[in-house]
Every structure is written in C-alpha cells, then in structure tokens.
C-alpha cells in the first residue's frame, strides 16, 4: 500500500525523487522506533529483538505460532507481541538467544512470493513496491528464477498502481503489431482476454 496518493504519476522525476526520499526517511524513522530490527527475502523474514545483557534462555517467554509472535522476559510485559502479517511454517521457524543479549527469530513464510509490509499487523508498514532487488538476495538466484521473481515484483507494482502487468503489456503489443500488419481489419469492438 503506497502512501503516495493518486497524484504521484503527475509528478516530475525530480518531484518523485523528493517524495520518495521523504517517504523513505519517514519509513526509516518508524522502523527504527520499533523494539526490534527485521529484514526479509521473499521466502522468509528475520527478526532481532534486543534483550538485557546477561539474559538466559530460561528467562525468556517466546511464543511462535502460525500467525502470532510474542517475545519478552518471564513475568514482565512482552517486548513485542501481536499478529503476524501472514502465516508462517511452524516446523521451519525458529528462535535462538545470541550472546545473551538478543533474540534472533527466523520466520519461514508460507507464501514465498509475497513481501511483508510489516512483521506485526499493528506496526507501521514499509512500502513493498520500493524494495530493491539486492535486499532480496536476487543475485543468489539462478537466471530463470531471478527473472520470474523480478517479473512478479514488476507485475505486483503495476497492479498496485492500476497499470497493466507484463503479460497484459505483451498481449497489447502483439495486438498492435497484428493491427499494423492488417490495417484492413476493424478491431474497434475487440475484447482482449
């Protein structure tokens, strides 16, 4: 969900750059204010929750469920708790206490073709249309898979902006070429499916 509004398409390239920079700065401030750091690739998300130095595993209260995450110290208010943006694979999701000072949580996504705008549904969102391919480790994928993922990202972005997907653009281009080759045919009432 973009916060840019309907006028974004009318802006000049420079105005878009200024708007994007302001959006990124606001987004970064919102994310930095969270009691955890997180990152993601299409297949999974990782969350790092700082805890007091010297914390031991038995001091922690961690709940990891299909659609819920809660992390805290036993007997105290959770550091974070809430509904996950989407379902996770329980059997492949884990948490560990690292250096007695941070809880590292690995969330394996059920839907491996979706960027998460946030970890917990009540926290601020990031603009998933602005995720850069290098953040997703696309470079680690083989050529065919990378092409498929980049196409999915492009199509998702186009749909969010109400524009045609790559397949729709290809059909329109094929039809245009056919029309150019056959000017005697009338396509004015043709429906493209």
UniProtKB/TrEMBL annotation:
Biased composition, class Basic and acidic residues, residue ranges: 7-30
Residues covered by region (Disordered): 1-30
Keyword Cytoplasm in annotation: yes
InterPro entries, sorted: CS_dom (IPR007052), HSP20-like_chaperone (IPR008978), NudC_fam (IPR037898)
GO CC annotation: cytoplasm
Gene Ontology molecular function: any one: unfolded protein binding
Domain CS intervals: 31-120
Record keywords, A-Z: Cytoplasm
Compartment(s) where it occurs, according to its Swiss-Prot or TrEMBL record: Cytoplasm
Top-rank taxon, per record: Eukaryota
Pfam families, sorted: CS
GO terms under biological process: protein folding
Main location: cytoplasm
Membrane-spanning segments: none
Function: Required for nuclear movement. May interact between microtubules and nuclei and/or may be involved in the generation of force used to move nuclei during interphase.
PANTHER family: NUCLEAR MIGRATION PROTEIN NUDC, NUCLEAR MOVEMENT PROTEIN NUDC
Protein name per the record: Nuclear movement protein nudC
Organism annotation: Antrodiella citrinella
């Amino acid at each position: 969900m973009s916060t840019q509004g309907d006028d974004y398409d009318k802006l000049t390239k420079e105005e878009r750059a200024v708007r994007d920079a302001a959006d990124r700065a606001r987004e970064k401030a919102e994310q930095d204010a969270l009691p955890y750091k997180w990152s993601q690739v299409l297949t999974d998300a990782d969350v790092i929750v700082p805890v007091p130095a010297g914390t031991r595993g038995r001091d922690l209260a961690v709940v990891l469920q299909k659609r819920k995450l809660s992390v805290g110290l036993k007997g105290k208010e959770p550091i974070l708790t809430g509904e996950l943006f989407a379902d996770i694979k329980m059997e492949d999701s884990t948490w560990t206490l690292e250096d007695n000072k941070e809880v590292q949580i690995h969330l394996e996504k059920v839907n491996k073709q979706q960027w998460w705008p946030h970890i917990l549904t009540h926290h601020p969102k990031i603009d998933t249309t602005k995720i850069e391919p290098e953040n997703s480790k696309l470079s680690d994928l083989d050529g065919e898979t990378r092409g498929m993922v980049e196409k999915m990202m492009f199509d998702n972005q186009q749909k969010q902006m109400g524009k045609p997907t790559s397949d729709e653009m290809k059909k329109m281009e094929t039809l245009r070429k056919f029309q150019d080759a056959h000017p005697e045919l009338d396509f004015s009432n043709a429906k493209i499916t």
